[in-house]
Amino acid sequence: MGAITIVTLVLGVVVYGVNLQASTLPGVILALVLGTAAFTTLGIGIVRFISNAEAAPVIVNLVILGLSFISGIFFPTDTMPKVVDIARLFPIRALADALQFAFDPRTSGAGVNWADIRTLVIWTAVGMAMMLRFLRTPQGDVQ
User: Fold this and answer.
1) Following CA atoms 113, 66, 32, 2 in sequence, which dihedral angle do they give, to the nearest 10 degrees?
2) What is the Cα–Cα distance from 67 to 111, expressed in whole angstroms?
3) What letter does residue 25 receive in the DSSP assignment?
4) What is the Cα Rg of the chain in Å?
5) Does the N terminus or the C terminus of the chain have fewer Cβ atoms within 10 A?
6) In this structure, are residues 45 and 130 in contact, taking their beta carbons and an 8 Å threshold?
7) pTM tops 0.85
8) Rounded CA separation 110/103 (Å)
9) Phi/psi class of residue 92: alpha, beta or left (left: φ > 0; alpha: ψ in -120 to 50)?
């Protein structure tokens, strides 16, 4: 997460004029850390459902692209309120909204949107539960 995040932030500020306020950096950092944790744990937890290495990209891309589509990542989904309501349940929308809030020049304070942070914490917990449940080695197989 570290180097690529810093390069992306620097490019955003220098090339695109992104407004990065020092006061809202806690919100940016918290969203990035929890987003990374949520997607990492979910990715590791879902491995159990992927039958082989060839199927992995197909399954992952279907899930990510589908959720990105309904989450308004590629285009605004304001005209589809029911889709937006469904998307708010998933971590992609929460991460996007948390970062949007933290980067918004009108945001004051620490830049933390607690509703989005709560969603990311919940999905991190779900991913951790999946990891613990599905990646255990059976007792008889330990050597």
Assistant:
1) -170
2) 25
3) H
4) 17
5) C
6) yes
7) no
8) 11
9) alpha
